[in-house]
Amino acid sequence: MPRMKTKHKEWDMDVTGRIKELAQEFEPYIIEKRRYFHRNPELANQEYNTQNVICQELDDMGIPYERVAGTGVLATIRGTAEGAYDAEGNPAHRIGLRADMDALPVLERTGAPYASQTEGVMHACGHDTHVAMLLGTARILCELRDQLKGEVRLMFQPAEEVAQGARKMIAAGALEGLDALYGTHIWSEVDAGTISCAPGQRMAYTDWFRIDISGASAHGSMPHKGVDAIVVAAELVVALQVLVSRDVSPFEPMVVTVGEIHGGTARNIMAGTAYLTGTTRTWTAKSRAEMPGRIEKLVGRIASGLGAEATLSWQEGHAGLNNNPECAERARRGVVKLFGEEAVSDYEGTLAGEDFSEYLKLMDGVFVFLGGRNPEIGATYPQHSCYYTIDESVLKNGSALAAQYAIDYLSEA
């Protein structure tokens, strides 16, 4: 029997209530999976065990899938609501839900009972929670197939941390036939119990650089007979910060970070070569385009002034992340339905980067920040910290919101 339009809001809340019940029911499962993936982290493009476990879980749920992009997975939940498919078997609409999978080269120091068992590798950015939450969403949606007016594509993506995974998934056809896309990141700057889903730009343009310095080695006691590449590198580290503080308007968000510096072969030999690597984060396409030239000019002048030579290598990362306003509003409504107005965070955004932006360059979608910060349990450390942890009580909320968004999108599209 078709539902009366006057009953739509009541019916909608019935579905939301069922989503919340299922999220609560599956919470132990979501947390258990999160802890498993946290104990067993894998670096970018090496997520073989993660992929196998995901596929086993999908098999158990009866969800068909394919392995793509090396260690990625695409799976499909077929809806059974009236009008989900046309006479030829084509879905009325298709929504994608994405989770990234890779860990970081970080030595964990949390002391958690489920801490990483792989030396020097840690889920220090929360991707373990993303996989677990999407599996939780899959279980919720399997129970609510009769509310799905179309299909839901589950996208388990590798290699986000090295800015490769999204492009690999796109090349593998992950976006083919999709109408829109939804993604989540658990976030240390957003309070647990709240969720940010604002429209517009939310994350920065991300690029990478390496500077190779060539000086002249000499005995450590005779520095005047060589050109110290380490001294040049040290000058460059400081000068790169002046680029941000003095060469760019204070109203233009920008970050230049040197993450590595290497040089020298022995304590009594002045280094003849050195190199440093880092990342830039910019908020506008214009600033991004100008950054390589600015750094190259600065590097050349400093190296020349100190009698050395230096070469800049530049690697483009991914674009700034922009939420489609309509999709963002749908996500906000989902938060309010599930958790109330007080759960909507006013988080301003971040200069961190995310390769989900590569998808949003090609189609409409939204990327939400799920609050994981809770000082009462020590969950205050930032992403990529060796002490990074989260409030696990929010994971069921992440699963619930993704399910709510998928159902709402397919009903409204």
Can you describe this structure in just a few lines?
With 413 residues, the protein is an alpha+beta fold. It has nine helices and 15 strands. Strand 1 and strand 2 form a beta hairpin.
How does this structure look, described?
The chain is α+β, with helices and mostly antiparallel strands and 413 residues long. The protein has two domains: 8-204 and 320-412, Zn peptidases (Aminopeptidase); 207-317, 2-Layer Sandwich (Alpha-Beta Plaits). 36% of the residues lie in helices and 24% in strands. The protein has nine helices and 15 strands. The strands form four sheets. Strands 1-2-4-3-5-15-6 form a seven-stranded mixed beta sheet, sandwiched between helices. The protein has a four-stranded antiparallel beta sheet with strand order 10-12-8-13, with helices on one face. It has a two-stranded antiparallel sheet with strand order 7-14. Strand 3, helix 3 and strand 4 (151-157) form a beta-alpha-beta unit. The longest helix is centred in the N-terminal third of the chain and has 32 residues, at 8-39. The two termini are 21 Å apart. Residues 1-8 have low confidence and may be disordered.
SSE inventory with pairings:
Elements: H1 8-39, H2 48-61, E1 65-68, E2 72-78, E3 94-100, H3 127-143, E4 151-157, H4 165-171, E5 180-191, E6 195-196, E7 200-203, E8 205-214, E9 218-219, H5 229-247, E10 254-263, E11 269-270, E12 273-282, H6 285-305, E13 309-318, E14 321-323, H7 325-339, H8 356-360, E15 365-373, H9 395-412
Parallel strand pairs: 3-4, 3-5, 5-15
Antiparallel strand pairs: 1-2, 2-4, 6-15, 7-14, 8-12, 8-13, 9-11, 10-12
Helix pairs in contact: 1-3, 1-9, 2-3, 3-9, 5-6, 7-9
